[in-house]
Amino acid sequence: MKSIRLALAVTMAMPATPALAAPPASAPSARLDAQIKGSIECGALRKVDFSSLDEAPTSITSATLVPGSGDRKAYCEVQGVIAPQIGFILRLPAESWNGRYFQTGCGGLCGDIGIERCAAAEAKDFAVAAHNMGHVGHYWTNAMWADVPQLRADYGKRSTHVVAVASKAIIAAYYGQRPAKNYFQGCSTGGREGLSSAHNYPTDFDGIVAGDAAFPVRQGAIMNNWAAQTLLDTADREIYSDDSRAVLHRAVLDACDGLDGVKDGILSDPRQCRFDPRALACKPGKNANCLNEAQVRAAQILYAGPRNSKGRRLAPGGYPYGSELSWRGGGDLEVATVSLRHLVFAEPRPGFRYRDFDWDKDIAAVEPQAALLDGIPPRVAPDYAAFHASGGKLIAYHGWGDGIPPTGLLDLYERVWETTGGLDATRQWFRVFMVPGMGHCRGGDAPNTFDFLSAIVAWVEQGQAPDGIVATQYNDDRSIKRTRPLYAYPTIQVYSGQGDVNDAANWRPAPPKRAPDDKIDWIWAPAG
Questions:
Q1: Is the omega angle on the peptide bond into residue 490 within 30 degrees of 0, that is, cis?
Q2: pTM value > 0.85
Q3: Which of 185, 187, 225, 328 could cross-link to 211 by cystine, CB 3.0-4.6 Å?
Q4: Where are the alpha helices (DSSP H) in 311-384?
């Protein structure tokens, strides 16, 4: 901590020129779409004192006016640090601000400032911000920063909140007005940030889009670790080859692709699939287009999901049918290793090996850190009552082909609507979209590109609840391969029976055959 305090002391030192006081929180609200100009010079923001911001003492390290070029308009780029070391970038349209604030989420372990993820909002004249969640490092392989408790807490939930606090204050200083509406969008770690914000800081954002939420302890200690132990042999070699993964995937599609009425290589709802991997077991005289005993067993284990010695579920689901092509234990091993050594236990365990994890005792040992890092603590139902009461709108989505159990989102959704007046009442402010065939945030041989930003803005500002969103799949040359509608859960997509199945216009919404019952009894499930 000594080095962090020293860095903070240098960063937060008062500038040599007299500092201007930060604007009061009572600054007037901006008028939407008014093409607002900065009220002070961009560089003057360096003279404003944000060091006393409640919860978010902030130092601006640079404020630079970037001239417009081509289709890109001029903007003021602000870089800064929130104590102790949360780095952020905020871009402020110099002459065309639309009165809205947009904050993007991070990915993996973060460690960088992904301002490029704000491109869509920036092009629409939002003020936009991104941050590094409190540390610098590789987003996937470096977690040594988590040995410092404060940095762990910042990664957990604090950074997302304080960046919103600081950004809104800087916006008010630059324009003399505060944002009229505030939005957040993120996937993976960013999806977790969104769900956590609605639960823990319900007034930070008016609209939230949360995709494929990745909860650090559920993933690193449990799902990635379980998958690594299943997909790697005792010498850490992959059990599956590319060919054997393809054999299994083709067999799953052959068995289940037509269950939605269309054979198009996409499973609309993998939960309907009942394929048994034992059907592919190699037999005497046959060793091609089949699975060996270890591969069959691995498939059964992954579909079933992690369990302890008593058979109790340790996660809200397993790997979905259709996800087979993404099964690679090496990637899971990377995440599990850094998580188990630096992130998920109360104290670092530098030499800890993933196979040392005790599926009975160590689940209890990592539970306290899940309360800190996962945003919604174990055994606690998500509480979005205050977010709803403030007028907030929430869109969550998940790929049906994601190795992070998609059923976890549906389990969360049912626990929310059970306590907020039922499914129909909850759909007035919280809607879920399941994306057939999509992997983790992207990928999969299916439509996987969509615009939820426009949808959340229309819902918040015009009351237009999103019933359907068109998803698009592109070829490598960016031509359109196919489109398909995504409907708000539990409404499903049904092919009309006429026209090209690859055209969204030929699909229609339909109610499910039965009311959803998506709660899962797993070890950290809320009571009731």
A1: yes
A2: yes
A3: 187
A4: 329-338, 361-373
